Amino acid sequence: MTAKRTFDVLGGLALLAVLSPVLAAVALSVALGGTTPGRGILRRRTVAGLDGRAFTMLTFRTRSPLAALPLLLHVVAGRMSLVGPCPLAPTHRECTGEARRRLSVRPGLTGPWQISGRSELPWEERELLDLHYVDHHWLGMDLGILARTLPAVRRRRSARFA
Asked: CB neighbours (10 Å) of residue 46?
């Protein structure tokens, strides 16, 4: 097991343990909040994982950053990483041709795209950030990205409500 994978498993388990009351509260809130009957509390989306293997990514049916909490289960299971390229559908153009090298690492809960403006970035810039990460990632870079993720999410939420 590599240092990155060890960090993912230990970090994912620690976050699941600490955030389990929040996970339960969000699940209950979504369930009581009037989700469409029969659709459940989780949204399912097929994405390309390591080496292009497709898997079903689960998120809560909410439009908040808390929607991503179930992704920690994918981190612990080895389908995702705490830090990595943005998860994409297996049919996405970045999962083919030259850009396919992004599939040589696990997709991440966060990454350079998350801390650099996410949806405000032009698609080409996000693609470059992902490929730069794939080519140059190391545990120190992951720690730096993780340290900058929560402040980036808070800034976006504050800007939205200003």
From this structure: 12
One pLDDT digit (tens) per residue for the chain, 162 residues:
699 999 999 999 999 999 999 999 999 999 888 655 667 899 999 999 999 999 999 999 988 889 999 999 999 999 999 999 999 999 988 888 777 899 999 999 999 988 887 667 888 888 889 999 999 999 999 999 999 998 887 776 554 444
The model carries a pTM of 0.88
Token reading at 74: 């994918």
User: What is the CA angle 23-148-117, rounded to 5?
Assistant: 95
CA atoms of 135 and 132, how far apart (whole Å): 5
- In one-letter notation, the amino acid at residue 35 is T
Q: Which residues of 6-43 are buried (b: 16+ CB within 10 A; e: fewer)?
A: ebbbebbeebbeeeeeebeebbeebeeeebeeeeebbb
3-state SS assignment for residue 92: coil
- Within 8 A by CB and 6+ apart from 69, the residues are 19, 22, 23, 26, 60
